[in-house]
Amino acid sequence: MSLSHLVGKAAAVAMKERPEINGMIRFNRIYLRKHVDLFYQVNIPGSENDPVGKANLTGATVRAAENLTVVQIAEALNAKSQAIKKGHESELTKSVGALSWVPWLLIRTVLNVSSFINYDMGISLTWAGMPRDAFGSIMITNIGSMGGDTAWAPLVPYTKVPILLTLGQVKPRPWVTESGAVEARPVARIGVTFDHRFMDGSHAAAMGKIFERCFADPETYFG
Length: 223
Hints:
The chain is α/β, with parallel strands linked by helices.
């Protein structure tokens, strides 16, 4: 189990308690999702013979995470990640495969049109290899696993995901205890990016408080 799984569970708890932050924008209006789906970025390292050419960053979606324990989230993500690394298709790789025939100059147009049909109009394009809501409610990227410390991921309008989290490397950092003493504690930084059309500072603050509660009482929320 890793920090990514704990953060995913905390995000699921936050969105279950505050369902107004679990949604997307359709036709300039807010549409709420029924379940909390976590989209994790999956890093596929290159081979020894071709460390750069075969390296890739893809993703896996854990569905209805609000109904899962943190162990179940970890197991679901691990199973999907291992399948992807072994060459099996995921929801995202199916989408990429469906676009492989599109000329580069038309990619942006095709993405915009398919996003409009899939998300705004709510018409399924699974027959064309484009999974429904492939990127879920929130994106989580563990940059710490790649040696990163602090980052803020850019919003990707096509995905209809309004919140992105980046998890930095766990490092010893100065920490002020309840008694006022300063100690070295293992701390990771979380970068948060959100669509201001969808949520504002009060929503972000509420989500932050729920995160603090989850990590302050891990036995209750993480088991």
